[in-house]
Design brief:
Blueprint (H helix, E strand, L loop, with lengths): L6 H29 L15 H18 L13 H24 L5 H31 L5 E6 L2 H13 L5 E8 L16 E4 L3 H8 L3 E4 L7 H10 L6 E4 L11 E6 L2 E6 L7 H20 L1 H14 L5 E7 L5 E7 L6 H9 L23 H8 L7 H7 L3 E3 L6 H5 L14 E3 L1 H4 L7 H14 L2 H17 L5
Parallel strand pairs: 1-2, 1-4, 2-3, 4-5, 10-11
Antiparallel strand pairs: 6-7, 8-9
């Protein structure tokens, strides 16, 4: 990962080139749309330059802002929403600086020029980043483009951390070994026997530096004293190995966490999740308006789908089913019918079958080649077109565009303690479960993602999920 020849450096250069090209093309288009090919069109105002010079300055400032906001920082590349959020922040700061410049100099910069350049270039930047992220995901699925890490800490917390890293391979961490307390040296569970125990905690820094690990990750402090953790930091000074501390708290987003140093001790303040307030009102209004607009735009495609459903199998066009909404209130959810009308009667017989069924899921019934699905329904499910009528639920206020998966009442009855917290927000048409594997996820993974979203969602995060959903639907991956 690190160094002049490491993959991170090469990836950053590619991002820089992609960003520069995207911004340059959009600024050229903005000038062409607003002023044609007039190269000497001047900005109105005292001592104002022409628009070509302004475009050049605008593009240069934007590229610099993307660097200053650390949107190409290696540790955020390939996972999470932080990269996209930093791109958005850099874009808004660039626009604000241009607006301030126009105010101070009394230059009357064309609003049409700016209103074209800002949103189009921002979308182009996000699209470029999404394209490169798909590339890095493809490489990481093959075991490439990872940071080599050594885990150090108590046995149990180290093993849990390694398992999490393996389950989220696209985060880009490859565990090359573990350092354990002397009393537990050499002890690992059977599923982790392929992870070498490199030494003890006291030897961790020297070992990580010697083998060229890029990060030393401290997995816990119940058997690792504060003095030992501090010494690890000292021993890594001047090396190419970074120190990462994995706190005991998990599944909490960055905005809810603040670090306050107290007498040299970094304390993590975790803000409690809120389930009401201004951002919820904003989300509800935005969802309702967007759903209404999308229903109007999708009226003709939905009509064609309805006709295809009706002509290819007997039964109603829409499938209506009672689902559990926010605060466990019941509502009727709408979908295009993708199964034969006797699907419910055939369910019990299918539950007894083995093989094609998802054996890792004891709550949801999922079957890869479900014989109850019609030929048209299989196509609709693959590209999530059967879910378009759920926009009606969003417009009515029963659902949101982004949220946890809407469960059946029978599922809720079998939930373990704590799972019901996912119903503290409105269920969504799409969500983290949709962009993280859809039906390929097992029950525990789905629950963890839904609970994480429930407590940590944001409007910027919702936008990222929507963009990722569009890509997941086009690929048709994990839907059956």
């Amino acid at each position: 990962m690190g160094g002049r020849r490491g993959w991170a450096r090469k990836y950053q250069i590619r991002l820089w080139i992609t960003d520069a090209v995207a911004i340059a093309l959009v600024m050229w288009l903005a000038h062409a749309v607003r002023f044609g090919m007039d190269a000497i069109a001047e900005v109105s105002g005292p001592a104002a330059p022409n628009y070509w010079w302004l475009s050049l300055a605008f593009a240069t400032l934007w590229v610099l802002q993307l660097g200053w906001s650390k949107s190409r920082e290696p540790r955020i590349l390939g996972h999470g929403a932080e990269e996209f959020q930093r791109v958005l922040h850099a874009s808004w700061r660039t626009f604000a600086m241009i607006a301030i410049l126009g105010f101070l100099t009394q230059w009357q910069i064309s609003r049409g020029y700016l209103l074209f350049a800002l949103p189009v270039a921002t979308v182009a930047l996000l699209a470029g980043r999404a394209g490169w992220r798909s590339f890095i995901h493809y490489q990481r699925d093959r075991g490439e483009l990872n940071a080599q890490v050594v885990v150090v800490g108590p046995v149990q917390s180290s093993q849990n951390l390694i398992r999490r890293m393996r389950n989220t391979s696209r985060a880009g961490f490859h565990v090359v070994g573990v350092c354990l307390p002397p009393t537990a040296w050499g002890v690992l569970d059977e599923d982790l026997q392929d992870v070498p125990v490199l030494g003890t905690i006291a030897e961790a820094a020297e070992i990580a530096t010697r083998i060229g690990a890029e990060y030393l990750i401290v997995s816990g402090t119940d058997q690792l004293s504060l003095q030992e953790a501090r010494h690890l930091g000292w021993q890594l000074e001047g090396t190419n190995t970074g120190l990462v501390v994995a706190p005991a708290v998990a599944d909490i987003a960055g905005p809810r966490v603040q670090i306050s140093p107290v007498e040299g001790l970094p304390l993590l303040h975790v803000e409690p999740p809120t389930f009401g307030g201004g951002k919820y009102v904003t989300k509800a209004i935005t969802d309702s308006m967007a759903a209404t607009l999308l229903l109007i735009l999708a009226a003709i495609p939905m009509g064609i789908i309805a006709l295809a459903v009706k002509l290819t199998s007997p039964g109603p066009v829409f499938f209506r089913q009672v689902r559990v909404g926010r605060n466990e209130s019941l509502f009727t959810m709408y979908k295009f019918r993708s199964m034969y009308v006797d699907a419910e009667e055939r369910l019990e017989a299918l539950r007894e079958q083995e093989g094609d069924r998802d054996a890792g899921n004891n709550v949801l019934f999922k079957m890869r080649n479900d014989p109850r699905v019609t030929s048209v329904g299989r196509f609709l499910r693959r590209y999530s077109l059967d879910e378009l009528p759920q926009l009606i639920n969003v417009a009515k206020g029963n659902m949101a565009i982004v949220g946890p998966r809407p469960p059946l009442p029978s599922e809720v009855e079998s939930w373990e303690e704590g799972v019901a917290r996912r119903q503290m927000v409105k269920p969504g048409i799409t969500g983290l479960w949709q962009v993280s594997g859809r039906s390929d996820l097992d029950w525990e993974q789905s629950v963890r993602l839904d609970l994480y979203y429930t407590e940590n969602w944001s409007l910027a995060g919702d936008l990222t999920i929507i963009l990722r959903t569009a890509w997941a639907v086009v690929k048709g991956r994990g839907a059956y």
